[in-house]
């Protein structure tokens, strides 16, 4: 069994910090010596541009290529086209071609497990695969959930994010029931926290009221900061762009929490030991 842990960073609400979290968790894990593969599962290609590949249209091989190769059984080398970022993470990039996969996957054999099939061909080289999901719960996101050992849900600090959360949690429950029995929700990460307001506190209270102890909240909260917004266009992580910022420190702390959850095999061993 592969010792790699696959995490989907998922929330169908847009602009809650999925991409920012994927970049800074991924690079954070790489800084701790982990081998990390990031997957851009959003046709907008934000993760790809955030990491410095601005012209996504010119990319010859993307996630859409890999999924198509699985569907058509035309995969030759699964590592071809994986990009290498100078901060130590690898990336399967995306561009608009991925939106066609929403349709193409529907008629594919094993339509929910096409991404899982691709990852099974590369994950033995990595400690972590982190999938940056798009803001919708369509076929590509379903593939990301079907391939995941666990889900991290970034939640923007605002009143009542609970309605969308209920839909997301229900979707994950269905994936667990029908496709991926081992999936678990690792936790919700509060993002874009403005310490001048009480919104973070009320959001946590609203989430606790709606989900009780069902889903854990990470201790770390990610503050809102101009430097973090600027980083998106710099092609680097917050650690490289502004190492002493509050956001850099918060993502480093969050990375430690994720590391403390352990990888798949370690978790299984500790479970067996009990
Ligand atoms: N901690 C932060 N402080 C300030 N701005 C932030 C922070 N985190 C993210 N942003 C900015 O907020 C916007 C949305 O963030 P991001 O792209 O990470 O969210 P997303 O959930 O991936 O969005 P989408 O759903 O569109 O894929 C971006 O412009 C990003 O630069």
From TrEMBL:
Pfam families referenced in this protein's UniProt entry, alphabetically: AAA_31
Boundaries of every AAA domain copy: 5-185
Catalytically driven reaction(s): ATP + H2O = ADP + phosphate + H(+)
Q: Where are the transmembrane segments?
A: none
- Highest taxon above the source species: Bacteria
Family assignment from sequence similarity: Belongs to the ParA family.
- Subunit architecture: Dimerizes in the presence of ATP but not ADP; ATP-binding is required for double-stranded (ds)DNA-binding. Interacts with DnaA.
- What is the name of this protein? Sporulation initiation inhibitor protein Soj
The source organism is Hominilimicola fabiformis
């Amino acid at each position: 069994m592969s010792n790699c842990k696959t995490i989907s960073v998922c929330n169908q609400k847009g602009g809650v910090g999925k991409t920012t979290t994927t970049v800074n968790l991924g690079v954070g894990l790489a800084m701790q010596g982990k081998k990390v593969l990031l997957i851009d599962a959003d046709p907008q290609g934000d993760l790809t541009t955030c990491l410095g590949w601005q012209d996504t249209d010119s990319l010859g091989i993307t996630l859409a290529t890999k999924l198509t190769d699985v569907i058509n059984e035309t995969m030759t080398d699964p590592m071809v086209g994986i990009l290498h970022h100078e901060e130590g993470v690898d990336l399967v990039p995306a561009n608009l071609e991925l939106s066609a996969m929403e349709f193409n996957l529907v008629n594919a054999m094993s339509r929910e497990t096409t991404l899982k099939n691709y990852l099974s061909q590369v994950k033995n080289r990595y400690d972590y695969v982190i999938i940056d999901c798009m803001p919708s719960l369509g076929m590509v996101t379903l593939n990301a959930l079907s391939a995941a050992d666990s889900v991290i849900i970034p939640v923007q600090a605002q009143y009542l994010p609970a309605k969308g959360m209920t839909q997301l949690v229900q979707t994950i429950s269905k994936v667990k029931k029908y496709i991926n029995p081992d999936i678990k929700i690792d936790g919700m990460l509060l993002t874009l926290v403005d310490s001048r307001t009480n919104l973070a506190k009320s959001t946590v209270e609203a989430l606790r009221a709606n989900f009780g102890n069902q889903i854990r909240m990470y201790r770390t909260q990610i503050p809102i900061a101009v430097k973090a917004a600027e980083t998106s266009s710099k092609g680097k992580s917050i650690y490289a762009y502004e190492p002493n910022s509050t956001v850099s420190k918060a993502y480093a702390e969050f990375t430690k929490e994720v590391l403390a959850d352990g990888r798949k095999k370690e978790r299984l061993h500790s479970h067996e030991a009990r």
